[in-house]
Amino acid sequence: MKIRGVWLTNVDSQIFNSKQHLTEAIQFLANIGFNTIFPVVWNKGFTLYHSQVMKDNFGVDFEIAPKYQQQSRDPLLEVVEAAKKVKLKVIPWFEYGFAYSHQILKDQHKQRLQKNFYKKGWIAYDQQDKPLKKNGFEWLNALDPEVQNFILNLMLEVIQNYDVDGIQGDDRVPAFPSEGGYDQKTKQRFRHKFGEEPPLNTKDQVWLQWRADLLTDFLARLYQKVKAINPNLIVSIAPHPFKFGFQEYLQDCPNWLKLGLVDIIHPQLYRRNVKGYKALAKEILNQLTTDQLPKLSPGILMKVGNFRISANDLCKIIEYNRQSGIQGEVFFFYEGLRENNSELARILLKNNYREASLILKEQGLSD
Hints:
Layout: E1 4-8, H1 19-32, E2 36-39, E3 42-43, E4 46-47, H2 52-58, H3 66-70, H4 75-85, E5 89-90, E6 99-102, H5 108-120, E7 133-134, E8 137-139, H6 145-161, E9 166-169, H7 184-194, H8 205-229, E10 234-237, H9 242-249, H10 253-258, E11 264-265, H11 274-285, E12 299-301, E13 303-304, E14 307-308, H12 311-323, E15 329-332, H13 335-350, H14 354-362
Parallel strand pairs: 1-2, 1-15, 2-5, 9-10, 10-11, 12-15
Antiparallel strand pairs: 3-4, 6-8, 7-8, 13-14
Helix pairs in contact: 1-4, 6-8
């Protein structure tokens, strides 16, 4: 599948503020020639859909993010309804994965959720026996079978309850900071396997691989269960670049591809210039077989904070992708397309994404 995708987020974006915003944005994307959207459905410890799994674990107040509870809305349902009308594929994005919160979030709901996770014994710990944090994110113990089942069930209920085309993990699922795994349960499992304590060196190769294998096992279970529900559903992952991802977050992407546990993969090649992007892309391409290449649709940084990619760099990156045999990409994120009178969207329509848009028009699916 030639992915022409974009992530839809509720951070630094107005798109989820109303059903009207969502509907207009999805029509806009169809007009440009996109064929796939990745709407966020799990972040800040809440879902953007009505979740029985959250309700069963934490009570009715956690069934959906408070904002949408107050508005009596179901954003994921709104996305699906709008996308189906213009033939866009919808692959819900579990942004936070095994991270349940971020340190800058300070509210009553976060505190209550944190207490519930502590009560269940799901909080991850580092080698100083402190709750695990990395780059501001606060983590659940991704190596704990109970935690894995919790995240697995969140993902499965989405594909069972909504007319979506798959599910997406990212740099936080399957993922776990390599500083973690020093909780008593995980240490006991390691001792049982190796007859010794886990190394204090968090980058010890055996310790890295053993923990990474536990995440690979999780992905294998997820993949099998998704395909058992519907073999046509897509399992998509947007991980860190491979080498960094393994060392820092235990993401064994080459092994995932070798084992056939990923249908499409979008490594986040987030660099702010063409040279940096090409360097990361070449590193990924050198690790892929000819059979694996069609699964690759890299993540491209379009906008973050005050940064927005230039039209010239955007075109050069897509040109490089096609010359390298990369047939698709996913942009982070939607709002970058709309800045400066939708400059980048118009560039895509005029050049690289013209063909896809013409196909849509022939089918009567865009204005």
